[in-house]
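Morning!

This is the sequence you dropped in the shared folder:
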Amino acid sequence: ADWPQRVWRMSDDRLVRAVQRLAGTLARHERQAAAAHDISVSQLRVLLALAGAPEVGLRISDLASDQALAISTMTRNIGLLEKKGLVARTPGSGDRRAVFVDLTDLGRSLSDALKQTTAGRFSRAFQAFHPSDRVERAVAIDRVASALEKS
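The structure's back. Tokens below.
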């Protein structure tokens, strides 16, 4: 009767360690890439999020929600990126309260370089997996992240 509980505990412990290892590796790569380009990790994440955005850009509130940051923190990050000429704000056409953020040409160039150094490392690592395995792992990691956010 004790054996199944021990196996589940070991399994849970191993999952926690694996997530911690992945988070640590990602954080290290992000810190290195951000430092090399004189931006913060949070700003790096904004640039990468904007790189995959539609042509109209993303709303500040959506960026903040996506990155689990307060809107005021995101607004501050956007302001710093704007001063560096990496992003531009555009008022929404339908709702004047909505402000969209998009990459400038300089920002797009930097985000492309960042993708090569950060996401590129992970993409190369993921090439070892069959495409269906990549999807399965992405779903599993996302479920773990969602469960942790709710707890």
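Headline: The chain has a mean pLDDT of 86.

More detail when I'm at my desk.
O.
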